[in-house]
Design goal:
Immunoglobulin-like, 2 domains, four-stranded mixed beta sheet, disordered N terminus, repeat, calcium, transmembrane helix, transmembrane, Cadherin domain-containing protein
Length: 271
């Protein structure tokens, strides 16, 4: 029941208690994002109301807290109609249950019925990664089985419509290990399956795909750029190259000195 207080008459305050009968709730379940004008149900029939008297009783939909009126009533048929778009993620974020509360108000006599509309999640969002590409640097000395954590994908939907799995494009060096956090969220690890050789390939490009469990299934992708860092396994060859280069420089220096002293007598070099 509702309590209504009326005051102020000729400077004196009077309090009247008006009890508004609440004759019971009615509940409906609808998918989010259904089109404006869609019929939720015949509320007059469900509540046993006389459709012919809806207009005379000024039947209307109201809200408890002056929030958005998501539905209206067809006074000719008694049907409850979607009036505004209902976005479950916008209303309830990641909550498991999402209920929109409205009220049916009638007059003569005054009567109120609470309406609970349960909004079901639909798969209207695709998995997304924070970045368009992921960059990872790995030493070529990394051993087989080494793992590298990957950024997880995020999905605006909940339950089965959230991210459920990942897949990695076929390649020669890596495989994917999918794990779950305590909250149930899935994430992937890049696992080295074949050791890297920078002299063979300095960079490796991979494609990671995240899938949700909705119907129809949606997916999102991210490119992984792996840079193979030198483990200095060619240090001996690099040293030989440096020695050869120094010899060349020294030989060129001798030639220049020889030319500049050609007309000035004998040139002697001491080591």
């Amino acid at each position: 029941s509702k309590l209504c207080i009326f005051t102020l008459h000729c400077g004196l305050a009077f309090v009247f208690l008006v009890v508004v009968p609440v004759n019971g709730d009615v509940s409906y379940s609808i998918p989010e994002e259904i089109k404006r004008g869609s019929v939720i149900g015949n509320i007059a029939k469900d509540l046993g109301l006389d459709v012919g008297r809806l207009t005379a009783r000024k039947a209307r939909i109201d809200t408890e807290d002056n929030s958005v009126k998501y539905c209206s009533i067809n006074l000719n048929t008694g049907e409850l109609i979607i009036q505004e778009r209902i976005d479950r993620e916008g209303l309830c974020a990641k909550k498991a249950s999402c209920v929109v509360k409205q009220e049916l108000v009638l007059e003569n006599p005054l009567e109120l019925h609470r309406i609970n509309i349960r909004v079901q999640d639909i798969n209207d969002n695709s998995p997304q990664f924070k970045e368009e590409s992921l960059k990872i640097e790995i030493q070529e000395s990394a051993v087989k089985g080494a793992s590298f954590l990957l950024d997880e994908a995020h999905d605006g939907d909940i339950g089965e419509s959230a991210v459920q799995s990942y897949s990695l494009q076929q390649n020669d060096n890596f495989k994917l290990n999918v794990k779950s956090k305590g909250s149930g969220r899935k994430y992937g690890e890049l696992v080295l399956d074949k050791e890297l050789d920078r002299e063979d390939k300095k960079e490796v490009e991979l494609l990671l795909t995240a899938f949700d469990g909705g119907s129809p299934q949606r997916s999102g992708t991210v490119v992984i750029h792996v840079t193979v860092l030198d483990a200095n396994d060619n240090h001996f060859h690099s040293t030989l190259w440096c020695v050869d280069r120094l010899n060349d420089i020294f030989f060129q220096l001798l030639l220049r000195l020889g030319r500049s002293k050609a007309n000035c007598g004998e040139l002697t070099i001491f080591f």
